[in-house]
Amino acid sequence: MAPYQYPPLNENLNEIRVLELQTGDFSADLRVSIRKVTLTPDTPPFYEALSYVWGTTDNKIDIKVGPPENDTLAITQNLAIALPYLRYKDRVRTFWIDAICINQDDVDERSRQVKRMGDIYRFADRVVVWLGPEDDDSGHVLKILSQLSSEIKVDYASRTMSPASSDSDPTWRDTRSLLPFSSDEVQSVESLLNRPWFSRLWVWQEILLSGNNAIVVCGSCTILWQSLRQTIVCLNSKRFSPSIDTSQLQARLIYILNMSSFDIYASFGGIIWRTAACKCSDPKDRVYAVLSLLRKWEKDINIEPDYTKTTAQVYQDAVLQHIKHSRTLEMLAFCELKNDRPAEMPTWVPNWAAIDSAQPLEHQGSACSYSSANAQYKGRGVLSAAGVVAATVLSAEEYISQKKKEGVVDEIRRLAPRNVEHSSYVAGGSLIDAFCSIMCVNLFSDLTRPRQEGFPQLDESREFVLAILQAKDWLSRTAIGSTQSRYLDYVWAFCNKRSFIMTEEGYIGLAPKLTKPGDQVCILLGCTRPLVLRQTSGLQYQVVGECYVHGLMNGEAFLGSLPDNYQARFLYDQGSNGWYRAFLDKETGNTQYQDPRMEAGDQIVNQGRSMILPDGTIVPEVTSEFLKRRGVNVQTFDLI
Fold first, then answer.
1. Percentage of the chain modeled with pLDDT above 70
2. Cβ–Cβ < 8 Å for 230, 147
3. Which of 68-72, 261-265, 366-370, 510-514: highest mean pLDDT?
4. Which range among 160-164, 575-579, 596-600 has the greatest average pLDDT?
5. Which of 277 and 389 is assigned the larger pLDDT?
6. Which parts of the sequence belong to the Heterokaryon incompatibility domain (predicted)?
7. Which of 311, 375, 548, 609 is the most exposed place for a label (fewest CB within 10 A)?
8. What ranges do the domains of the chain cover?
C-alpha cells in the first residue's frame, strides 16, 4: 500500500477536509475516508471536531484510507488509541481531526488552516474532548462530578453558585460547608484534572469555541464540558476536609478555572499569559493559538500566522499591531525584565516563551485614566511613548517565595513598614490599609459589583494582618480560618516573584523582582498599570515591568487624588461582558461611571476622542495636550 497523497484545498472556496471513521468493533482495524467540504457559516457541513493531545510522533501507526483502501496514513499512537473508543458500530462518524485533515507536510497549507481553526471548532456540530482511557477511578469521578453539577447553577461573572432547582441540596452552593469527598476521591479528581489535555495550548481555543454541547470522553465514560466547568467553580469555591491535603488540587482548580474564563475576563495579553504554562511545540503558537479567543473589539487585529518569522519578530509584531489596533499600551504591562532575556527582543516586548513570570495585575486599577497611547515605533527596536514619572524607587525587598500559610505570614511580618499599625499614608487613609491592599493588589470583594465572593474582604484582612503583626505567637494558638486562608492565598499569588518597594515620595507597592533603587515608577498614556522603567546611559529606558503602587492606580498621576467622599470600584457590565471602573459617592450611596475629577468643561476643552461608558456617559479622552493644559509634566520615553 502507498502513503496517502493529499489533494490540494481550494482556499477561495473555504475548503477543509473531514474524515469519515468507518464502522467496526473495538478491536477491528481502523479504516477512514477523507473528503473535502466547504466551510460556510450559514450552512456549515456536519462534522464533530476532535480535541486531543497529539503525544509523541515516534512509532506512528498506519491506518487504511479509502475507498478503495489502497492507501495508508500514519497517525500518532494517542490518536490510534482514541479512535476505537470513538468509532460507532452501526454508522459512520464524521470528524475533523487536525493531524489528519491538515497536510502537516505542507507549511503553507498549515499556516492557512491554522488561521481557520477557530471557525472549524466554532461551526462544528459538537466538539469531542478525548482525555484518554479510563484510569485512577476516572469513571467514578466523572459520575460524582456529573451529579454535583446537576445540583448547582453557576454565574460565571461573579463566580457564585445557586441551587439548580427547588429540589437541589442547598449545601452544595454554600461555600461554608465542607465538600463530602474522601481522600481517595480527591486524589482521583486531581489525577483526572492533571491529564495532559488540560496542559496543551491549542485545546483551549478548541473547547472555548465549542458552544454549550461539547462533551468530554474518558474511555467509555462521558461528561458534558459545561457540567465539568460548573464543578470546577464549585470545588474551587468550597473547602475540603482539613485532614486532606488539597494544595496541588487547589492550584489545578484555579488554573483550569482561569483558563475556562477567557471569554469573560481576559485581554489579548492576559490570554497569552494565562496559557504560558500550556505546552506547545512552537513558541510562535503562544500568539497564533489564541487569536480566535480574542474579545470582539480585538478580533480584527491584523496578525497573520507566519511560521517563517523568528519568535522575536512574531512577538514584536503582535505588540505593534495591538498598539495600532487598540490605541493602548496594555501589552507592555506583560513585560518583565530578566537576566536571561533574548538579546534581540526589546524590553517592551513580552517574552511569552518564558513561563516563569509573576501573576499579572489585570483589573487592578486604571492608572492612566481614560487615555489612549501616544506612541510611535521609531525602528531599530525603539518605541517612543508619552507619560509621566510618578515616583522614584527608594528601596526594593524581594518577596521570599513561600507558599505554606506559615511562610506567607512570616513574609507579611518581614515586609511590613515600620509603625504600619499607627501611621497615615501619603495618598490618604491609613498605612495599614495601604499595606493590606498592596499585598493582595486590592482584590477585595468589597470593591466589586457583583461581589466576587472568592476575593478576601478588606475589614477581615485588616484585622487579620494586625493580629499577626501584634502577636508573634498568633499562629501557634489560633487556627487559620477560611477567610484568612483566602487572603494568604492572594498574598502568595501576587507577591510571589515580586519585590516590595518604597518610594522617595512615601508610596509603597509591589514591583518586578529585579526592581532596584533609582528605578522610576511611570504612568504611560494608554497603559492602565504603572510601569517600572530604568534609565540607561543613552537616555533611553528599559521596561522592568508592571507594578501596583497604592495611591497611583486610579489616575492620580494625571488627575490628582479622588475627592474624599469618593471610592473607586469595579462594576461588571453584562451587555459588554466586561469590567469597568466606577466611583462610589459614599455620602449618597450612588455609583457613577463619570470620573468626579473630570470637570464638565473638560468635554469642550479637550479636543481628543471620547469614549462611551456602559451607562451612556460620554467621557473625553485624556491626551498629552489635555494633561499639559492641566499642568501635568508629560514627557517622552524612548523604550528599548
1. 95
2. no
3. 510-514
4. 160-164
5. 389
6. 47-206
7. 609
8. 2-124, 136-293, 326-335+344-352+360-395+497-640, 400-496
Distance of CA 262 to the CA centre of its chain: 6
**How far is Cα 532 from Cα 528, in angstroms, rounded to an integer?**
13
Q: Nearest 10 degrees: CA dihedral of 136, 138, 139, 144?
A: 120
CB 77, CB 56: distance < 8 Å: yes
Instruction: Give me the percent of the chain exceeding a pLDDT of 90.
Output: 66
Amino acid at 592: Q
Helices (runs of H) and strands (runs of E) counted in the chain: 20, 27
Q: What is the mean pLDDT of residues 503-508?
A: 99
Listed in order, strand segments (DSSP E) in 258-334 are none
C-alpha cell at 275: 496559557
- Residue 564 grid cell: 474624599
What is the predicted pLDDT for the residue at 7? 95
Q: How many CB atoms lie within 10 A of CB 62?
A: 16
- 3 state SS of 514: coil
- 3-class SS at 98? helix
**Cα separation values, 208 from 45, 181, 233, 260, 638, Å:** 20, 28, 16, 7, 39
Residue 604 pLDDT grade (very low, low, confident, very high; cuts 50, 70, 90): very low
Whether this prediction's pTM lies above 0.70 is answered by yes
Spatial CA neighbour of 406 closest among 527, 488, 515:
488
Diameter of the chain by CA atoms? 85
What is the spatial distance between Cα 428 and Cα 562, in angstroms, rounded to a whole number? 10
388, 634 Cβ separation under 8 angstroms: yes
pLDDT in tens, 113-159: 988 999 999 999 999 999 999 999 999 999 999 999 999 999 876 67
Q: How far apart are CA 572 and CA 578, in angstroms?
A: 6
Task: Render the burial of 417-445: b for 16+ CB within 10 Å, e for the rest.
Answer: beebeeeebbbeeebbbbbbbbbbbbbbb
Residue 349 has pLDDT above 50, yes or no: yes
Residue pair 476/410 in contact by the 8 Å Cβ criterion: no
Interacting residues of 167 by C-beta distance below 8 A, sequence separation 6+: none
